[in-house]
C-alpha cells in the first residue's frame, strides 16, 4: 500500500524500555506481507521509507526512543486474520528479552439482508461506485447480516455496533451482533455504519421509502406533465 | 381531467381518474427506479342490468345482480388486483419530466344497456403504491403508501329522452354498496 495517508485505522501499541538502554538494539519480528508497523499514526503524514518499521531489522535506542522511553507504534493490517509480533531487546548481539503479542484484523466483507427459508426479502440492495444502498418501505423491519472475515470469531461478533441516526436498531441474535434488525416509522435516508471499538468497519445508505397517493378526477383537471402512460399515445380508444 | 384529445373511452358512462404516487425520499429513484408499481384492488362491486342480469347463456333476464365482488364464497375482504395495469401506468419515476412520481390512469365505466333499458353499477376501489423486492415476480410485493380509497356510481336509463345518464359519479371515499337496484324491472 503506497498511499498510507489514506490507509484507514491503525492500532497503536505502546513499547516501553528504560532510559539506560541507550546501548541496546530493538527488533520487530513480524510477517511484513500481513502487517506493517509505523512510527506515526494514521492522521499524520507518513512516507514508506522513513516511518516504516522494517521487520527483522535492528534499530538503535535513538532510532526509536529519541522522544522518550515509551513510544507508541502503529500497526496496519494488510490481511485479515491473527498475526504475531515479537519485539526483541538485543544487547551485545544477543536476544535478551522478547515481548510477544497477537493482533487479529478483521473485515466486514459484505452486508446483505438475512432472509430465512420461505421468507420474502424486505429490501432491494445495490452497490454503486463502492457505496452500498438498501431500500425498504417505511414501517418494515428487515434484518441485515454482516459477513466477517475471518469467520467464527465470537469476540468480534459480540462487540460490533450498528449505528444510524433516527431509526430503531435491534439485535435478534444476541450476543452475536452480526445480525441487526432496522426499522423506521419515517420516510428517510440514513447512513448506516458498523463499528468496532468506534472504528467504522462498514458504511452504507438505507432508504426507508413511502409514497404519497393523490388523485385527479375533475373534468377541469389536466393530466400531470410527467404522466407517460402509453395509452396517452393511442388514437383509437383506450381499454377500460 | 384530460388534456389529450386522443383520449377516448369505451364505456357509455365513464369516469376518468389519474393517480399520482410521489416517492420519498426522492433520491432513492436514482438508484432504484424499477421496483415501483401502482396497484389497484377492487374491494366491492355490484351492478344490475334492467334490475337483474343477462349473464345467462341464452341472454335472458335473470333476477339478481350481474356482478359481485368479492365473489360468493370468497374470504371476507378478499381483493384482486385490477386495472390500471400495463398500458395505463407510468411506473418509471424517472421517465420524461418525472422526478419521483409514478402515474396511473383509469377509466371505469358502465356500458350502454342496449335493449335492456337500464344499467347501474356501484364500485369501491383502492389504489396504492407498491415496492417489489423480488425482480422475478410479484412474490416480494410490499405496500408502500396509504390506501387511496375511491368509488364510482353510474346509472344509465336508455329509455329517457335527452341525456341517458342519470348518475356518473366518482368520489375519493368508499360508498355504501346497495343490495337492491335503483331501477325497477321493465319488461
What would you say this structure looks like, in words?
The complex is a heterodimer of chains A (240) and B (187). Chain A folds into two domains: 4-105, Immunoglobulin-like; 107-209, Immunoglobulins (Immunoglobulin-like). Chain A contains three helices and 17 strands. Chain A has helices at residues 48-51, 61-64, 154-158; strands at 11-16, 25-29, 35-38, 52-53, 58-60, 70-77, 81-91, 94-105, 107-113, 124-128, 131-137, 143-149, 160-163, 168-170, 179-183, 188-196, 199-216. Chain B is mostly beta strands. Chain B has one domain (16-171). Chain B has strands at 13-14, 17-24, 36-49, 52-53, 62-63, 67-69, 80-81, 89-90, 101-106, 109-110, 118-132, 141-143, 148-157, 165-171. In chain B, strands 3, 6, 7, 11, 12, 13 and 14 form a seven-stranded antiparallel β-sheet that branches. Chains A and B meet through strand 10, strand 11 and strand 17 of A and strand 2, strand 8, strand 9 and strand 11 of B.
Helix/strand layout:
The complex is a heterodimer of chains A (240) and B (187).
Chain A (H helix, E strand, L loop, with lengths): L10 E6 L8 E5 L5 E4 L9 H4 E2 L4 E3 H4 L5 E8 L3 E11 L2 E12 L1 E7 L10 E5 L2 E7 L5 E7 L4 H5 L1 E4 L4 E3 L8 E5 L4 E9 L2 E18 L24
Parallel strand pairs in A: 11-17
Antiparallel strand pairs in A: 1-6, 2-5, 2-7, 3-4, 3-6, 7-8, 9-12, 10-11, 12-15, 13-16, 14-15, 16-17
Chain B lengths: L12 E2 L2 E8 L11 E14 L2 E2 L8 E2 L3 E3 L10 E2 L7 E2 L10 E6 L2 E2 L7 E15 L8 E3 L4 E10 L7 E7 L16
Antiparallel strand pairs in B: 1-10, 2-9, 3-6, 3-7, 3-11, 4-5, 8-9, 11-12, 11-13, 13-14
* Rounded Rg of chain B: 19 Å
User: What is the correct CATH architecture of the largest domain in chain A?
Assistant: Sandwich
Give the SSE order of chain B as H and E letters. EEEEEEEEEEEEEE
Query: Going across the major beta sheet of chain A, what is the strand order?
Result: 10-11-17-16-13
H/I helix tally of chain A:
3
| Total domains of chain A | 2
Amino acid at each position: 500500500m503506497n498511499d498510507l495517508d489514506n490507509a484507514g485505522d491503525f492500532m497503536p501499541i505502546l513499547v516501553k524500555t528504560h532510559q539506560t538502554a541507550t546501548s541496546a538494539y530493538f527488533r520487530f519480528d513480524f510477517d511484513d506481507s500481513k502487517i506493517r508497523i509505523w512510527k506515526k499514526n494514521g492522521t499524520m503524514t507518513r512516507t514508506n521509507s522513513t516511518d516504516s518499521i522494517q521487520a527483522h531489522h535492528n534499530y538503535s535506542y535513538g532510532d526509536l526512543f529519541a522522544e522518550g522511553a515509551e513510544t507508541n507504534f502503529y500497526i496496519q493490517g494488510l490481511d485479515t486474520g491473527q498475526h504475531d509480533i515479537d519485539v526483541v531487546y538485543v544487547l551485545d548481539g544477543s536476544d535478551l528479552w522478547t515481548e510477544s503479542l497477537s493482533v487479529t484484523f478483521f473485515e466486514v466483507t459484505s452486508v446483505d439482508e438475512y432472509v430465512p427459508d420461505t421468507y420474502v426479502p424486505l429490501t432491494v440492495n445495490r452497490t454503486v461506485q463502492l457505496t452500498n444502498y438498501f431500500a425498504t418501505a417505511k414501517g418494515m423491519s428487515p434484518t441485515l447480516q454482516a459477513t466477517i472475515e475471518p469467520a467464527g470469531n465470537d469476540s468480534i461478533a459480540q462487540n460490533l455496533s450498528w449505528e444510524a441516526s433516527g431509526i430503531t436498531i435491534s439485535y435478534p441474535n444476541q450476543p452475536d451482533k452480526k445480525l441487526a434488525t432496522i426499522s423506521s416509522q419515517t420516510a428517510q435516508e440514513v447512513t448506516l455504519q458498523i463499528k468496532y471499538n468506534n472504528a467504522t468497519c462498514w458504511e452504507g445508505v438505507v432508504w426507508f421509502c413511502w409514497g404519497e397517493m393523490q388523485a385527479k378526477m375533475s373534468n377541469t383537471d389536466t393530466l400531470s406533465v410527467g404522466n407517460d402512460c402509453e395509452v396517452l399515445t393511442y388514437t383509437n380508444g383506450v381499454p377500460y | 381531467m384530460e388534456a389529450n384529445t386522443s383520449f377516448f373511452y369505451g364505456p357509455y358512462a365513464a369516469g376518468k381518474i389519474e393517480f399520482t404516487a410521489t416517492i420519498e425520499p426522492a433520491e432513492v429513484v436514482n438508484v432504484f427506479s424499477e421496483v415501483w408499481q401502482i396497484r389497484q384492488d377492487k374491494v366491492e362491486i355490484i351492478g344490475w342490468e334492467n334490475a337483474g342480469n343477462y349473464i345467462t347463456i341464452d341472454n335472458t333476464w335473470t333476477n339478481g345482480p350481474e356482478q359481485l365482488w368479492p365473489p360468493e364464497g370468497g374470504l371476507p375482504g378478499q381483493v384482486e388486483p385490477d386495472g390500471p395495469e400495463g398500458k395505463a401506468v407510468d411506473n418509471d419515476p424517472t421517465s420524461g419530466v418525472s422526478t419521483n412520481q409514478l402515474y396511473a390512469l383509469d377509466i371505469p365505466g358502465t356500458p350502454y344497456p342496449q335493449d335492456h333499458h337500464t344499467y347501474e353499477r356501484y364500485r369501491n376501489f383502492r389504489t396504492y403504491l407498491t415496492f417489489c423486492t423480488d425482480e422475478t415476480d410479484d412474490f416480494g410485493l410490499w405496500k408502500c403508501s396509504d390506501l387511496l380509497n375511491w368509488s364510482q356510481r353510474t346509472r344509465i336509463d336508455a329509455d329517457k329522452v335527452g341525456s341517458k345518464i342519470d348518475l356518473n359519479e366518482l368520489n375519493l371515499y368508499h360508498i355504501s354498496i346497495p343490495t337492491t337496484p335503483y331501477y325497477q324491472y321493465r319488461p
